[in-house]
Design a protein that fits this description.
mainly alpha, 62% helix, 154 residues, Fis family transcriptional regulator
């Protein structure tokens, strides 16, 4: 006798399409990557603005959220350094009107953007969409950061 599968309590599971199970298409990956890398160049060279710093923060947080299910292994400290650098740049911009990323953290962002490029090239689209959903949830909340403080062993 064949048994029927019964769904448990809660909402029904969403069926993932083939496109959702595959990585993003190459053109979309290149476009997103170019956006983030140009934002970094502009912010590094003192031509940043609120939008460009938000793009850097967005890339950093989506990279963090994609790292959680195994797409990357950057130390937490790298993310915290990048996060603090964005906060410092926003404070400087508020005080002086100068939108610039500190020179000493540019290599940290370069590393995180390289990681994010590779994540976008291999992570299934549904994982990228989930990371972006988590970013929206974080932005809508009142938590100061989705990245935990680095411990001694990270």
């Amino acid at each position: 006798m064949a048994s029927k599968r019964r769904g448990g309590p809660g909402p029904p599971r969403r069926t993932l399409t083939k496109a959702m199970l595959l990585p993003m298409d190459h053109a979309s990956v290149r476009e997103q990557s170019l956006t983030y890398h140009l934002a970094l160049v502009a912010c590094r060279d003192g031509h940043g603005n609120r939008y460009l710093f938000n793009e850097l923060a967005r890339a950093m947080y989506v990279a963090w959220f994609l790292q959680q299910p195994g797409f990357g292994a950057e130390p937490i400290g790298q993310y915290k350094t990048a996060e603090r650098a964005v906060e410092a740049a926003l404070t400087l911009a508020h005080e002086s009107g100068e939108w610039i990323l500190a020179e000493d953290v540019v290599p940290v962002f370069e590393k995180l953007l390289a990681l994010h490029d590779s994540q976008l090239a291999v992570a299934p689209l549904h994982k990228v969409m989930e990371a972006e959903r988590r970013l929206r949830h974080f932005l809508a909340g009142n938590a100061s950061s989705p990245v935990p403080e680095a411990s001694q062993d990270n």
